[in-house]
């Protein structure tokens, strides 16, 4: 083996079927390589397969490949399902052309296939996703330019002397164009006069910075909010000017994850330095990301009033307090309760390793790829750890329950007194029982268990 190469592959499709793109982010010993492409009419699965094919084909045949994909379709297809597909000669298999091409590309190679959760904040997967979308965008531009060129070629020159000898239609078109332009200008002016002011009393999904990812809750639950949170930073010391570069938090109510989350990459306005080795986030990646002041209102509104759960929470809260203070907002620690899972773990497991990785092993949490730390990924892992570490310690806030739920609870607590009837055997039933017992004893030569 000459070297080990890590590949992150991903596909994207707008419409499915529709315009699609694929991306492969390849990390070799010599450096990074970014591949992308697309097709005007395709499906997401075809783009996922194409990303894997192109990424593998790019690598030397004698290299050991470690491939990460967020498509179970690709991972299970190439490692499990493909054997039965070959036996039945690809009958009833979708995308057989690409599966056969992927199979041929993998021949005589050492490949380790892995699944990774998509859009979970992992730097490698995020880069592959960006490349896939870039491939789709480039394909759309090429398609548009080709279509325009064909239209220009086929478009006949109008003969206005024959069609409109006095130029009346041309004058009418010009009048309509001027009128439409005036309407468009008026609309833009009205929009410019309407300023959207941040309001922490409104949910932050109303007006977001385009690079803030907030997911809506899938479960409608009542009770106090808990936010499992993690940050990534340029270094360890907020006092020395280190800044936050990533924030991820997921919502939990009554020990159930609601599906709501927030995830933001932030331009720290300084180099990430040696911390890149921990989180894998590069200066180039953060270059077009928003500054903290641009996302502070939305982030503060999402976090405010919740119980923040973090591992080594002092670290995260010091950085968040510093960042919010810089933009003139209150300290987060003043408006949130904080629970430190590291302190909980040390109290529960004194004298043992209590890092997040150690707790994952101790509580047998399902493994995830942590080649690099990612804020949202670590928050998801910490949620599993927190629930396992505090198992059985469920607290119900009765004030948070609705009046209906409270009345239902009271109803179920009322003692129900019912006199159960006692039904005795009849004389005929007793006689039949005696006959059966005697027959049993004669047959087996021993007393019956049911004999009186």
From TrEMBL:
What task does this protein carry out? Endonuclease that specifically degrades the RNA of RNA-DNA hybrids.
Q: Does the keyword Transport apply?
A: no
Enumerate the subcellular locations listed in this protein's record, separating them with semicolons: Cytoplasm
> What family name appears in the similarity comment?
Belongs to the RNase H family.
Provide the protein name.
Ribonuclease H
What does the subunit comment say? Monomer.
What cofactor requirement does the entry state? Mn(2+); Mg(2+)
Keyword annotations: Cytoplasm, DNA replication, DNA-directed DNA polymerase, Endonuclease, Exonuclease, Hydrolase, Magnesium, Manganese, Metal-binding, Nuclease, Nucleotidyltransferase, Transferase
EC number of this enzyme: 3.1.26.4
Q: By its UniProt entry, which Pfam families does this protein fall under?
A: RNase_H (PF00075), RNase_T (PF00929)
Cofactor: how bound: Binds 1 Mg(2+) ion per subunit. May bind a second metal ion at a regulatory site, or after substrate binding.
Which GO MF term does the entry hold, naming one?
Answer: DNA-directed DNA polymerase activity
Q: What reactions does this protein catalyze?
A: Endonucleolytic cleavage to 5'-phosphomonoester; DNA(n) + a 2'-deoxyribonucleoside 5'-triphosphate = DNA(n+1) + diphosphate
User: Where is Mg(2+) 1 bound in this sequence?
Assistant: 10, 48, 70
Q: Which residues bind Mg(2+) 2?
A: 10, 129
| Annotated RNase H type-1 domain residues | 1-137
């Amino acid at each position: 083996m000459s070297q080990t190469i890590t590949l992150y592959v991903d596909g994207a499709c707008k419409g499915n079927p529709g315009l699609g793109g694929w991306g492969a982010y390849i990390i070799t010993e010599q450096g990074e390589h970014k591949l992308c492409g697309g097709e005007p009419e395709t499906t997401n699965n075809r783009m996922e397969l194409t990303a894997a094919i192109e990424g593998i084909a790019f690598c030397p045949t004698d290299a050991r490949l470690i491939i990460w994909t967020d498509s179970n379709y690709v991972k299970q297809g190439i490692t499990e399902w493909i054997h039965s597909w070959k036996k039945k000669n690809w009958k009833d298999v979708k995308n057989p052309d690409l599966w056969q091409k992927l199979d041929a590309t993998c021949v005589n190679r050492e490949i380790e296939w892995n699944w990774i959760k998509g859009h979970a904040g992992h730097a490698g997967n995020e880069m592959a996703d960006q490349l896939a979308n870039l491939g789709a965008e480039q394909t759309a531009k090429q398609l548009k330019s080709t279509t325009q060129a064909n239209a220009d070629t086929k478009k006949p020159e109008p003969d206005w002397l024959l069609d409109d000898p006095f130029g009346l239609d041309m004058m009418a078109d010009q009048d309509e164009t001027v009128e439409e332009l005036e309407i468009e200008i008026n609309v833009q002016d009205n929009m410019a006069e309407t300023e959207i002011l941040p309001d922490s009393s409104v949910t932050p999904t109303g007006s977001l910075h385009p690079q803030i990812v907030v997911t809506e809750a899938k479960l409608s639950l009542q009770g106090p909010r808990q936010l499992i949170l993690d940050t990534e930073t340029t270094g360890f010391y907020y006092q020395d000017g280190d800044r936050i570069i990533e924030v991820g938090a997921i919502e939990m109510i009554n020990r159930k994850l609601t599906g709501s989350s927030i995830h933001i990459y932030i331009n720290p306005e300084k180099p990430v330095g040696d911390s890149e080795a921990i989180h894998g986030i590069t200066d180039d990646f953060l270059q077009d990301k928003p500054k903290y002041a641009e996302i502070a209102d939305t982030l503060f509104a999402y976090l405010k009033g919740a119980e923040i759960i973090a591992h080594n929470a002092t670290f995260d809260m010091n950085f968040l307090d510093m960042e919010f203070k810089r933009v003139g907002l209150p300290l987060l620690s003043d408006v949130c309760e904080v629970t430190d899972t590291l302190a909980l773990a040390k109290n529960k497991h004194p004298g043992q390793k209590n890092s997040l990785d150690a707790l994952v092993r101790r509580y047998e949490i399902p493994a995830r790829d942590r080649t690099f730390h990612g804020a949202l990924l670590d928050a998801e892992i910490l949620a599993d750890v927190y629930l396992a570490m505090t198992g059985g310690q469920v607290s119900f806030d009765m004030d948070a329950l609705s009046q209906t739920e409270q009345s239902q609870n009271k109803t179920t607590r009322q003692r129900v007194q019912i006199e159960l009837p006692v039904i005795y055997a009849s004389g005929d039933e007793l006689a039949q029982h005696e006959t059966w017992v005697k027959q049993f004893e004669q047959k087996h030569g021993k007393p019956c268990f049911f004999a009186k």
